Fold each of these.
Amino acid sequence: MDFRLRSVPLLSRVGADRADHLRTDVDAAIAGWAEAALLRVDSRNHVLVANGRVVLGAASAFADKPPADAVFLGRIEGGRHVWAIRGPLEAPRDPDVQAVVTDLRRGGQSLDDVSAQLVSSAIALLNWHDSARFSAVDGSPTKPFRGGWSRVNPVTGHEEFPRIDPAVICLVHDGGDRVILARQRVWPERFFSLLAGFVEAGESFEACVAREIREEIGVTVRDVRYLGSQPWPFPRSLMVGFHATADPAEQFSYNDGEIAEAAWFTRAEVRAALEAGDWSSTSESKLLLPGSISIARVIIESWAAL
C-alpha cells in the first residue's frame, strides 16, 4: 500500500519571503527598519493573534534601528521587512483589534500561511539564541550575525548556525485496514498518536524509523516510505514523516519505557476519532488524536481517506 499526504502540513507552507540575501545587508536592514513590522514572542513562546493573523507592531516604535538580538524573518506583502524579538507582548494600538494570547500548539491551526511561517521561524531562532550565547568550540561569548541567522565569535571569527534536531514520525499499518497508534506515559488517557523519535549520529531516516519503532513497541517494520516533513520549533526540531508496514501477529513490548500502551485501530475507528475532533475536544471518544498543527494529523487523515 502507498499513499501521499492530502495537504501540506501547516508549518510547512510557504508564506513570507525569507529574503535571505538581506541578512548580511546592513544598509538594507537599517533602511527597511523605519517601515518594518515587529513580532514579539514572550518567554513562554506566546504571541498575540487577531483574526487568524499574528499581531505585528511597528519596529520603529521599539527602537531606532534593529537591536543586536532581533532576528530578521523576511518580507511580507508590499516588501515590508519583518523582525522578531524576545520580550513582553504589547496590545495592538488599534482598540478595535481584539487580540488573544496563544502559542503554536494551541492556536496554530487558526493562523494563515504567512503568520504560521513567521511565528514558527521566530520561535525556532529565538529558542536557539537563548541557548547558544557561548561558543560550542571554546566557550567564548558569541554575538548574533546575519540578521540573527548565525552567531560569531568576535575574537576567532568562528561562525555557528542554528541547530536543527531531525526526528522521524511514522504511521505503521498492516498494508490494509489497520494502523498502530500509541500513547506516551506523560499523555492523558485516550490521547494517541504516531510513533516518533530523534535521529542518531550516523543514521539514515529510514534506519531511524526501524530502530525507534523496535525500541518503543518491539515491532519490526518493513517497506519504509517517505511522506513529507514539517518544522517543529519545540524547541528546534524537523519532523520527517514516513509510513511503514508491520505484522499484526507480532506482540508489543515496551522496551524503552516511553510508551504506556499501543494498539491496532481500524480505519473506521480512526475516521470516527477524526470526526470527534482532536486532543482539545471534550468528546467522550475512546480515541483522541493530535491537532491539525501537527504533521501527525495530516498523515493520519491521509491514511484514513484511502
Amino acid sequence: MVKLNNKTLSDLPANIAVPTYDRSALTAGIVHIGLGNFHRAHQAWYLHRLMQNGQALDWAIVGAGVRPNDETRRLELLEQDYLNTLIELDPSGISAEVTGAMIDFVPVTADNAPLIARMAQADIRIVAMTVTEGGYYIDPVTKAFDANHPDIQHDAANPTTPKTPFGAMAAALKIRRDTGVGPFTGLCCDNLQGNGAILRQTVVSLARLSDPDLADWIDANCSFPNSMVDCIVPATGPTEIALAHELGIEDLAPVTHENFRQWIIEDDFCAGRPDWDKAGAVFTDDVHAYEMMKIRILNGGHQIIVGAAEVLGIETISGCMSNSAIAAFFNKVALNEIVPHVHPVPGRTPESYVELISSRFANPRIVDTTRRVAFDGSSRHPGFVIPSIRDGLAAGTPIEGLALTEAAWARMCEGTREDGSTIQPNDPFWTDLQVAAKAAKDDPAKWIAQDQFYGDLANEPRFAEAFDKWLRLIWAEGMTAALKTYLAA
C-alpha cells in the first residue's frame, strides 16, 4: 500500500489515474470555503480535468474552513500534499483517480485572520463555498436575511474578526477595495434556489450592518453567479478508507462518488474564470430551470424517502429503493406531484429525470446513509419539498404524497423507530422539532403550526386535512400501511 503524497504518485498502481501536470507550477486563483467531500468530488474534479489538458494552471484551489473541525481536515490533506483519491462507484465496477487541483489550505482560526488575508490577495479571483443549505442565515420560509442571528450580530459588531465566512468575505473585500486590488466573484455551490442571489444577499446585508459604503461597493462590483451542482457523494468513514486500501492507496480522506456529475453555471464572473465548460460544465443564462428540476426531484426526492426510511430502520438510500413501498412512493410523488411544476431543460424532460434519479438512488455501491440525507430537515423541507406543496395548492394538482412526506418527517422527529430504537438528534433544531412532533402525535396541527417552516400552510385546508389524516394513520397503523394506502389510491 502506497502512502499518498507528491513523491509517491509514480508508485501507485498502474490502474490509478494520477495528475499529468506539474503541480509545482500551479498558482492559486480560487479560495474554496467548506472543503468537504462534495467539493473534492465535484468542483475540484472539473478543475483537475482542465489541468490534465494543460489548461487553468493559474486557477488552483486554496482550501478554507471556518469551523474547528475544518482544521482537522486541513492537517489530513497537508500530510498528503493536498492530493485526493476519488473512487467512482459504478454499478458495473469501481475505478479510482488521484486529483491535484488543490495546492494549499488556509489555517483555521477563530478570528478568520488567515482566511481574510488570503482572500484579500490579488491572485484570488473567485471565492467559492459549500457550507450546506442551512448556513446562509436566511429565513426558511421568506428567504430574507436573518440580521438577528447571534453570529451575524457578532460579525456586525466585530467586522475585522468575524465568525462567519460571509463576514470574512466582507472583511477581505474591504481590504481589496481600499488597496485597489478590486472585487472577486462569490460562487455558491450549495443546493439553494437562486444560490448566487442568496450569497449576494447575505454578504451585502451583513456588510451593510457595519459599513454601508462597503456594502454598496460589493453590490456594485462583485458578481455572484447562480449555479446548480449535482453528484451523490457519501460521507467518508472506515469503509471508504478501507476501500482505498484495497486499491493500494493510503489516503486519510478518500472520497467515493457516483458515476454522474452535473454543473450548471450562470456566466457572470467579474474577475475571470476557468473554462469549466471544456470539462463538461454548462454555462447558461437559465440556471433556474436546471436547479428547479434538480432541487425539486433529487433533493426533494431524498426527503420524500428518508423520513419513512428512518422510522422503518432502513439505513441507506439504496436500501430505501430496495423497499418496494418506498421506491413506489418516490416515483408516484415525483411524477404526479412534483413533475407538473418542473420545466424541461435541453436534453432532459422531468419524467426522464425522475427515472434517472430513481436509478441513481438505487445504486448499491453508493453507501449513502439515510441519516446523512435526513440531516437538517429544518432547512431541507422548506427548501426542497414545501415549495412543491405550495405549487400544487395553487395549481390544483395532487399534494397527498407531499403531505404524507411531511407527516413522515414529523413521525421521524418524534425520535423513535417502529422497532423501538432511538433516532439520535439529527437537526440543529432537534429539541424543538421533537417537542412539536410529540405534541403532534395527538394533535397533528401542532406540527404544521411551526410557521418558521410552513408559513401559512396550516391555514390551507387541503394540506392541513391531508397532513392530519396521514400522521394519524402512521401512528395508528404504521408507516408501511400509510405508504400502501397512498399507493392504492
Amino acid sequence: MDDEQLLTVDEAAARLRVSRWTLYCLIRSNELRSLKIRRRRLIPADAVTECIHNLMEAA
C-alpha cells in the first residue's frame, strides 16, 4: 500500500477544501469513510472521491 492511499485528516480536508471540523462532521454522519489505527484517524483516498460523488448526487 503506498502513502497516497491513506490520507491524514489534514490531507483529506485539503482535498475536499473544507475545515478539519467539517471533515469530522462528515465522518460522524457516515458520509465519509475512515479508519482508526490506534490514535490516528486515516481516510482512504477512494473514500474522498466516493464522498464527493455522493454529495454531488444529493445536490
Amino acid sequence: MTRWAFSTLGVPGAPLAETVRLAREHGAAGLELRVHPDEEVRLGLDTGERRRIRALLADAGLEVPCLATYVRICGDAPDREVLEEARAAIALARDLGGAAIRLFPGGVGDGADEDRAVRRLDALAADADAAGVRLLVETHDSHPTGEAVARLLAGTGAAAIWDLLHPWRHGESPGATMAALGDRLAYVQIKDVASPADLTPIPLGSGAVPLEEAGALLRGSGWRGWVSLEWEKAWHPGALPLPEALPGARAWTERHLP
C-alpha cells in the first residue's frame, strides 16, 4: 500500500510536536523532515534531542521516509565539506529512524558536476549502507529532469526523488521522467502551481502540474513507495496554510495509489 507523507517545509519553524499532531489529524503515515538551522530538526543535535524526536515520532506511529537536506552533491565546494555535511545527515537520519536523505544536485549541469557527484556518492555508499539510509538525488536545480538525474546516477548505488514540478516545468513529460528514472525511482514529491513561471503552492488539482497523468503512470507501474506533499511555505509565505492543502494530498494519493 502506498504511504503518504508531507514535508515540514510547509510549516517553517513550527514545533515538531505541533506538526506531529497535524499529521495524525490528517491521516498521514509519515513526515518528511526538513533539516535546516531554523528548524527543530537540524544537523548538530545532541544525543538527547535525537532520542526525544525519535520517540515523539514513534509514539505517534509516524515514519520518517526522508530527511530533506540541503547537501549539494554536484556543487563546487571542496569534497571534504560536502562529504562531512552528508555524513552528518546520514547519521542524523539513522538516529531519527529516517529511511533516506534528500540530496540536491546543486551544480551547473556540466560534466564536471556529474564527475563530482559520482565520486562523492561512491565515497558515501559505505556510510549509508552501514546506517541503513538511502541516498536520494532530487530532480532539481542543475539536473531538473529525469533524464539528467538518471545520467548523474548511472554507475552509482543512489536512487532518485521525482519532484513532479521540475521535470514538467523544464519540458519533460511525466511519462518521459518515469521512463528515464526506471528502477532508480525511490520517492515522489507532489505539488501544484499555477504555471511554470508562478511557483506559489496551490491546492492539488487547481493548477497546471500534470498530476492526473503522473498519478495514472504511477498506478499503472504498481508504485508502492512513498508520496510526499512538498508545500513550499518556507519559500512562498503568501501561500495558503499547510492544513488547507493536506486533505487534497490525501485524496490524490488515495485516488491514484490505493
